[in-house]
Amino acid sequence: MKLQIFDVEHGACALLTADNNTRLMIDCGHNALSNWKPGTYLKSHGILDLDMLAITNYDEDHASGANDLFDNINVKWLSRNPSVSKKIINILKSEDGKGPGIERLFDEIENTFTGNALSPEPYFEGLITRKLFYNSYPAFDDENNLSMAIFLKCHNTGVMFTGDLEKAGFSTLLRNEEFRKALGETNVYIASHHGRESGCSDEVAALLKNVYYVVISDKGYTYDTQETNPFYRNLAKGGIFRSEEKRFVLTTRNDGCINFKFTPDSWCPY
């Protein structure tokens, strides 16, 4: 099993390829500098079907490659926070406006992913657990705290994606014992809000007892994430990454695309 965390500047895009070659993409940002786009990437590798797309946040940087993805790839399933409809996203985006990626995503939600299909969810071989955690609208009325956290148990290794959750959103999710348990089982933590201070929660940190690596997709927020690096370094036990040097925090800013390999007996980043 392989997890790729792509360098999409200040955005987010990751791809989990299961042992049976089913694929789960988490967010679909793109890199404007290198012109890397998720659909073009998959197609260039002979992949024309994506078993599931999961969206952790309804900001443009998490969906800026949506047009490229849906134009090139048959996306079979969409996983998201269902409390946010197109009408609600129009309200949330009334001041700043929607980008083309979010516009396309909600067009697909209205016309393709209507929730009426009865087909079974894809089977990701080796993915022992896939759990979703999110707050609902109107309890929260900002995109960041409506982010969907995703916990993946890849064989015996726990990976947690947290979207752009901020302290208030985390505090509410922590009332859920399943979320607290998942944090305790997390070995790879994808930092919230691209590693910015608003996503640093002491309540969450207190439960992250088994984290070896924190990953930050942060190219657009270099200064902010340098400020929070000590916070995240203190969370992690650390391990070898690409050389003999022990690392605690991995960043797409410095490391480019970050990969993880998971087997029943071992796991490692590279």
Can you describe what's shown?
This protein has 270 residues and is an alpha/beta fold. It has one domain (2-269): Metallo-beta-lactamase, Chain A (4-Layer Sandwich), CATH 3.60.15.10. It is built from nine helices and 17 strands. It has helices at residues 38-44, 66-72, 86-92, 100-111, 167-173, 177-184, 202-205, 222-233, 252-255, and strands at 2-5, 13-17, 23-28, 49-50, 52-54, 74-75, 78-79, 127-134, 148-154, 157-161, 188-190, 213-216, 239-240, 246-247, 249-251, 258-262, 267-269. It starts with a strand and ends with a strand. The model has no long low-confidence stretch (mean pLDDT 95). It holds the Pfam family Lactamase_B. This is Beta-lactamase superfamily II metal-dependent hydrolase.
Briefly say what this structure is.
25% of the residues lie in helices and 24% in strands.
List the helices and strands and how they pair.
Elements: E1 2-5, E2 13-17, E3 23-28, H1 38-44, E4 49-50, E5 52-54, H2 66-72, E6 74-75, E7 78-79, H3 86-92, H4 100-111, E8 127-134, E9 148-154, E10 157-161, H5 167-173, H6 177-184, E11 188-190, H7 202-205, E12 213-216, H8 222-233, E13 239-240, E14 246-247, E15 249-251, H9 252-255, E16 258-262, E17 267-269
Parallel strand pairs: 3-5, 4-6, 5-7, 10-11, 11-12, 12-15
Antiparallel strand pairs: 1-2, 1-16, 2-3, 8-9, 9-10, 13-14, 16-17
